[in-house]
Design goal:
By secondary structure, the chain is an all-alpha fold. The protein is built from 11 helices and 2 strands; from the N terminus they run ββααααααααααα. The protein has a single domain (about 20-130, about 145-205), classed as Endonuclease III, domain 1, CATH 1.10.340. About 50% of the residues lie in helices and about 5% in strands. Helix 2 packs across helix 10 and helix 9 packs across helix 10 (about 170-180). The longest helix is centred in the middle third of the chain and has 21 residues, at about 105-125. GO terms for molecular function: DNA-3-methyladenine glycosylase activity; metal ion binding. This is DNA-3-methyladenine glycosylase 1.
Length: about 210
């Protein structure tokens, strides 16, 4: 889910404190915003899930994806990479009949393909987390303008993943993933959660191989 906003784009949350304005689009966004979006993630399964769901979100609303997230988890074995990598054309046909998820053949096949590519990446890099976090922009670099949908880092990661055979990992999808998994803090300047994310990031040690 990609969120771009001007520096003043906030609205009062349920507690009256300012939140990123996009939370107002759906009631369920507040919990996702306050507890997940932008907080650093080092767990490979969660990283694979986040990147997969960002791929499914392409061309759709994040509300649609968030509402179906538990169904996606059930359909893709909790995003366990080894289990997803073993899925076959029979599984694809079954999921194309599953109204609980987004029934898009290309995106379903991409998740299975990407699970196979992810296992190759883990064998090479030690973990998905080690791979992604080694691309982290220099913390001393100023945050990008909050109207961007890509960054030099997202373009570089996208290019490398595509070279490795991943699908549905364009620069915009990768940037949304970077926002979601905490590689960049794109909470609005006045958002009460921005400082919480910054504190969590300071306490977080990026995994290395």
């Amino acid at each position: 889910m990609l969120h771009n906003h001007p520096m003043t784009a906030t609205l009062p949350g349920p507690d009256g404190q300012p939140r990123c304005r996009w939370c107002g689009a759906a009631p369920e966004f507040f919990a996702y915003h306050d507890a997940e979006w932008g907080f650093p993630v080092a767990d490979d399964r969660r990283l694979f899930e986040k990147l997969s769901l960002e791929g499914f979100q392409s061309g759709l609303s994040w509300r649609t994806i968030l509402a179906k997230r538990e169904n996606f988890r059930a359909a893709f074995y909790g995003f366990d990479m080894a289990s997803v990598a073993r899925m076959t054309e029979r599984d694809v046909a079954r999921l194309l009949q599953d109204p609980g998820i987004v029934r898009h053949r290309g995106k379903i096949e991409a998740v299975i393909n990407n699970a196979q590519r992810a296992l190759e990446l883990v064998a090479e890099e030690g973990s998905l987390a080690a791979y992604f976090w080694r691309h982290e922009p220099d913390p001393a670099t100023p945050d990008p303008a909050q109207a961007v949908s890509t960054s030099p880092t997202s373009i570089a990661i996208s290019k490398d993943l595509k070279k490795r055979g991943w699908k549905f990992v364009g620069p915009t999808t990768v940037y949304a993933f970077m926002q979601a998994m905490g590689m960049v803090n794109d909470h609005a300047a006045e958002c009460v959660t921005r400082a919480q994310v910054a504190h969590a990031r300071q306490a977080f040690t990026p995994p290395r191989r």
